[in-house]
């Protein structure tokens, strides 16, 4: 099936309020252009260098919105702020403070999501719920960030029911944070749901879904 057909099929189940991000890591610029041709403007990348190369090759498409969805190392914060519109994978207090400090130097206000780890998972980064609540006052004190919401990835091996419950817990956590009325924590976005679980994520309240293989098919490393 073509990329256009894949995207059309996804959109049939997509509420108007949910943003479709095409995860373009390991995808050629030709395939990104194919997705662009049918209306996709948001693209997710995991690596700084790969994203930067693609952005240079796609400079004729000025309305692209680039999202960093991979783990961000501290030594790459400056470049990430410079080339990405969103950073979804902000997973520690140390990283929040570093992004805030560099953003101030660059006179930037990056959109970020706080990555949370609702269930134990050695393969994922992020705050546990107690850790996040303990550090919310420090996060809220950062003045050079647009903290837009939460990002989450469920552990592998969950049943459909468990996956649904996972996403609902993330949604409930977002509501709990919002009720604290902190000035800098908007919590308007829930970045959750990938190719294999985006429907339960949408059902639980996702506002941004991150889809790769269901759009582009199996990908080889480029």
Give a verbal description of the structure:
The chain has about 220 residues and is an alpha/beta fold. It has a single domain (about 5-215), classed as Alpha-Beta Barrel (TIM Barrel), CATH 3.20.20.10. Helix content is about 40%, strand content about 20%. The chain contains nine helices and eight strands. It has helices at about 5-10, 30-35, 50-55, 75-85, 95-105, 130-140, 160-180, 200-205, 215; strands spanning about 20-25, 40-45, 65-70, 85-90, 110-115, 145-150, 185-190, 210. Strands 7-6-5-4-3-2-1-8 form an eight-stranded parallel β-sheet. Strand 2 (about 40-45), helix 3 and strand 3 (about 65-70) form a beta-alpha-beta unit. Helix 4 packs across helix 5 (about 95-105) and helix 7 runs parallel beside helix 8 (about 200-205). The two termini are about 20 Å apart. The model has no long low-confidence stretch (mean pLDDT about 95).
Q: Could you say which structural class the secondary elements and strand pairing correspond to?
A: alpha/beta
- The CATH superfamily bears the name Alanine racemase
**Secondary-structure element series:** HEHEHEHEHEHEHEHEH
Number of strands: 8
Number of helices: 9
Main beta sheet, described?
Answer: 8 strands, parallel
How much helix, percentage-wise, in residues? 40-55%
> Which stretches are low in confidence, meaning pLDDT under 50 for 5 or more residues running?
none
> What is the rounded Rg?
17 Å
Please identify, by name, the CATH architecture. Alpha-Beta Barrel
Number of structurally distinct domains: 1
Shape summary: globular
Strand order of the largest sheet: 7-6-5-4-3-2-1-8
Distance N terminus to C terminus? 22 Å
- What is the averaged pLDDT score? 95
Residues in β-strands, percent? 15-25%
- Give the CATH level 1 class: Alpha Beta
Here the CATH topology equals: TIM Barrel
